[in-house]
């Protein structure tokens, strides 16, 4: 547990900046600030210069600060999934951490030859062997240094201390795996919808075991893509092990989408509420965001609660 009194989590998507601030209270936390601000134009991190991105982020942050300033100097960020290079790779157990990083860099150079290796920050999470992974595998996540530099400069300008940077998918799934009700669920499925993409994560004993990220075309439904993936050669043998309940969070979640997912997969999909067990400040402004738009704040909550 981190030694802190309050901590703010900021989630950045192509459309908006979301902020969630939590305050430490003994072994629990209290939500003391929640807000969001939409960008004037949709951001594209792959083509826009850091100067224009920085200006858009600052304008959105200033807008939130005018409504209710944050009190914490500690902040962590979850960034758009599309700016991360995420892949599941096998590895040799005899390799050291340094050797593994170099091995994964080489693998990434083959998968993404257009990205200069020296510009990548590479991290990984080892995955346990189980019914899905018969070999030693790792979830490898890489991001270009320019994106981290953008966030660091933002923090310096606003007198903030940066703690963590995660992808929106990792932040959301970390929160998902912290839910007490999942203790005895076994193999669980969690998806996050953001803009025109969604991530699909199978978790075994509260740890990610299988991860895929999909772009959603206009003529393809999320439910159809998910059903195809569950029936693929990689997963068809483990489908019976899945807990009946599956979860979805993110943007654009409707009753129709949940119904489509239930019909296509045969699983009882539920909308994830990241604030279900959280204490909320009594006079909190924008309480409607917690009551009505809770699911869209899953990544912000995942990164904000990381220090609890």
Structural summary, described in words:
It is a single chain. With 308 residues, the protein is of the alpha/beta class. It has three domains: 6-80 and 145-168 and 289-294, 2-Layer Sandwich (Nucleotidyltransferase, domain 5); 82-143, Dna Ligase, domain 1 (2-Layer Sandwich); 175-271, 2-Layer Sandwich (Nucleotidyltransferase, domain 5), CATH 3.30.420.40. It is built from eight helices and 14 strands. It has helices at residues 50-67, 97-111, 145-157, 168-177, 222-230, 255-265, 287-292, 298-304; strands spanning 6-12, 16-25, 28-38, 74-79, 84-90, 120-127, 137-144, 161-167, 187-194, 197-204, 207-215, 242-250, 268-271, 279-280. The chain has a six-stranded mixed beta sheet with strand order 8-4-1-2-3-14, sandwiched between helices. Strands 11-10-9-12-13 form a five-stranded mixed beta sheet, with helices on both faces. It is globular, with a radius of gyration of 19 Å. The N and C termini lie close together (6 Å). The mean pLDDT is 90.
Count of domain modules:
3
CATH class of the largest domain: Alpha Beta
Portion in beta strands:
25-35%
> How are strands sequenced across the largest beta sheet?
8-4-1-2-3-14
CATH superfamily of the largest domain: ATPase, nucleotide binding domain
Specify the overall morphology: globular
Q: Please compute the radius of gyration using only Cα atoms.
A: 19 Å
CATH architectural label of the largest domain: 2-Layer Sandwich
Number of distinct beta strands: 14
Mean pLDDT rating: 90
């Amino acid at each position: 547990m981190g030694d802190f009194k309050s901590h703010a989590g900021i989630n950045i998507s192509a459309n908006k900046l979301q902020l969630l601030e939590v305050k430490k209270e003994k072994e629990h936390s209290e939500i003391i600030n929640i807000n969001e601000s939409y960008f004037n134009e949709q951001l594209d991190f792959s083509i826009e210069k850091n100067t224009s991105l920085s200006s858009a982020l600052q304008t959105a942050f200033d807008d939130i600060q005018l409504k209710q300033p944050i009190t914490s100097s500690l902040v962590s960020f979850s960034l758009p999934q599309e700016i991360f290079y995420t892949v599941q790779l096998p590895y040799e157990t005899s390799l050291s951490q340094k050797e593994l990083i170099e091995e994964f860099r080489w693998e990434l150079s083959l998968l993404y030859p257009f990205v200069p290796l020296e510009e990548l920050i590479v991290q990984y999470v080892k995955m346990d062997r189980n019914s899905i992974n018969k070999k030693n595998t790792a979830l490898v996540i890489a991001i270009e240094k320019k994106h981290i530099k953008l966030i660091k400069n933002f923090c310096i300008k606003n007198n903030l201390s940066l703690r963590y940077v995660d992808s929106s998918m990792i932040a959301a799934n970390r929160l998902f795996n912290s839910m007490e009700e999942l203790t005895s669920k076994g193999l669980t499925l969690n998806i996050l919808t953001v803009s025109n993409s969604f991530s699909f994560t199978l978790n075994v004993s509260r740890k990610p075991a299988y991860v895929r990220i999909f772009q959603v075309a206009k003529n393809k439904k999320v439910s159809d893509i998910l059903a195809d993936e569950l029936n693929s050669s990689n997963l068809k043998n483990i489908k019976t092990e899945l807990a009946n309940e599956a979860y979805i969070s993110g943007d654009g979640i409707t009753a129709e989408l949940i119904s489509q997912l239930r019909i296509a997969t045969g699983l009882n999909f539920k909308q994830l509420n990241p604030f279900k067990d959280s204490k909320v400040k009594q006079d909190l402004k924008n309480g409607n965001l917690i009551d009505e738009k809770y699911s869209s704040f899953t990544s912000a909550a995942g990164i904000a609660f990381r220090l609890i």
